Amino acid sequence: MSGMWRFLKKPEGPALAFMVSGMLWFIIGTLYGLVSAIDLVAPDFFANIAPLVFGRGRPTHVNTVLYGFVTEVLVGCGLYYVPALLRTKLWSPPAAWLSWLLWNITVLSGPICFAGGHTQGREYTEYIWAFDVTFTLAIVLLAVNIVMTIANRRENSLYVSVWYFTGMLLWTAGSYPIGNVMWHPSTGAVAGILDTVILWFYGHNLPGLVLTPLAVGAAYYVMPRIAQAPLWSHTLSLVGFWTLVALYTHIGGHHVPQGPIPNWLKAMSTIDSMAMVIPVFVALGNLWLSIRGRGGKLLADPAGRFVLAGTVWYLITCVQGPIQSLPAVQRVTHFNNWVIGHSHIAILGFAGYIALGAMWHILPLLSGRELYSRRLVNLQFGLITFGLVGFFMVLTTAGLIQGGAWNNGQTIYRVLPEIAPYMFLRAVMGVLIIAAAFVGFYNLWMTLRRGRVIEPELREEALS
C-alpha cells in the first residue's frame, strides 16, 4: 500500500487514481452483470433477494461499467496524455483529485441506491438527482482544469487527442444535465413523449460524445507511438472530430421508431445514423494509414494489440449500428437480445479494449515501472476476446430468434424455451470477462508494487 501511496502523491496521481478505481469498478460491474445473467437463466436462483433482482442488478451493471470502468480508465489516460502532449503540467492536481472523488461518489451511489430501489428509472440516467449533481461538478471541474492546462501550455500545436478529450468534457458538461432533466429534481423526467426525446438525445450521446471521443483520442495517442510513425493526416483527424459532433447529437430518435415522436425526427435520426460512417471511416482510415507497414509492432505489443482490436470492434459496431437504425431492419432486431449484443461490442469491444490498451501503454510512462507481466496482459486479452466474441454471437443468435418469432406473430411463452440455452451460454461467457477483470486489476496492482523500475534516462527517451 505504501508503494501505491507514493505514486498517488505525484502530480500524475489523479490520472493513476482514475485508472485504479476504473479497474476496480470493472470487477464490480462485471460481477453485477453475472448476477443479471443468472437471473435470466434461473429467475428464482437468488430467492427474490430484492437488491439482486434483475430490475436492480441490471442498471447497477450498466452504470458501473459505463461510468466506472470504461470512462474512468479513459479519463485517467487523458489526464496523463493531455499534459504530456502540451509539454506542461496539469493546471490543478487538487481539482483533479476533487473530480475523482466526486466521480467515484457518483458511481458508488449506483450499487447502494439501485439496490434499495432508488433510481430515476430512465435508461442510462438512473442516478438520483443528488448524484447527478456530483457527477456534473466532477465533469465541470475536469473541463476547467483541462482548458486552463491548454491555456498554460508550452506546445503551440494542439494534437487531435487533446481536441477529443477536451471536446468530451465540454459536451458532457452540457448534455448530461439536459439528458437527466436536472431542473426536475423530484422526478428526473418531464411529462409525455418529450421525455423520450430528451432521454434518447442523451442516451445516444453517452456512447457517441463521451465514450467515442475518449476512445478515439486515446487511440490517436497510442497507435502512432507504438508504431513509431507520425499521424497520417492531422487535417483528416479534425474532419473526423467535427463530423462526429455534427452528426451524432441527434440520432437518438432511431431508438424509438415505433414511438409517436415526429416523423421528421425519425427520418433525420435514421439519415444521420447512416451518415455516421463518415467520422468512423475517417478516424479508422487515418489511424490505419498511420501504421501501414508497421502493424506488426502493434500486434507484438500487448497494449497495441488491445488498441488495434478496439479499432476493429469500432468498425464492426459502426457498420452494424447504422444498418440496424433502418426501420425495416428494426422490425426484427429491436427490443431483443440483438441490441444487447450490439451494445456490448460498442462499450466493451470498442471503448473497453482501447481503454485497457491505452492504460497498459501509459502505465509504465506514468509510474516509471515496467509492466509486472506482459503475459497477464495477453491472458486478459484472450479471456475478453473469447468471452466477448462468444457473447456477441450468442446474443445475436438469440435476438434473431426472438425477432423472427415476434415478427411472425409467435407468442412470447413459445419463444422463451428456444432462447434458454443461449442465456446459459451468455452467463458462461460472462465468467470469462469477469476473470479478465480480476487478472487486469492484479497486474495493475503488482506493476505499481513490484514492477521493475525504469531507468530515468530510458523513461525520458520513452516520453520524447
Describe this structure in words.
The protein is built from 17 helices and no strands. It has helices at residues 2-8, 13-41, 54-86, 93-115, 129-151, 160-179, 193-227, 234-248, 263-275, 277-290, 295-300, 302-324, 327-333, 337-367, 374-407, 412-450, 456-463. The chain is 78% helix and 0% strand. It is mainly α and 464 residues long. It is globular.
Summarize this structure as a short list of keywords or feature phrases.
464 residues, mainly alpha, 0% strand
Shape: globular
**How many whole angstroms does the radius of gyration measure?**
21 Å
N-to-C terminal Cα separation, in Å? 30 Å
What class would the helix/strand composition place it in?
mainly alpha
Question: How much beta, percentage-wise?
Answer: under 5%
| Overall mean pLDDT | 93
Poorly predicted parts: 460-464
Question: Element order, helices and strands?
Answer: HHHHHHHHHHHHHHHHH
- Major beta sheet, specifics? none
Helix fraction bin:
over 70%
Query: Can you count the helices?
Result: 17
Q: What's the number of extended β-strand segments?
A: 0
Which helices and strands, and how do they pair?
Elements: H1 2-8, H2 13-41, H3 54-86, H4 93-115, H5 129-151, H6 160-179, H7 193-227, H8 234-248, H9 263-275, H10 277-290, H11 295-300, H12 302-324, H13 327-333, H14 337-367, H15 374-407, H16 412-450, H17 456-463
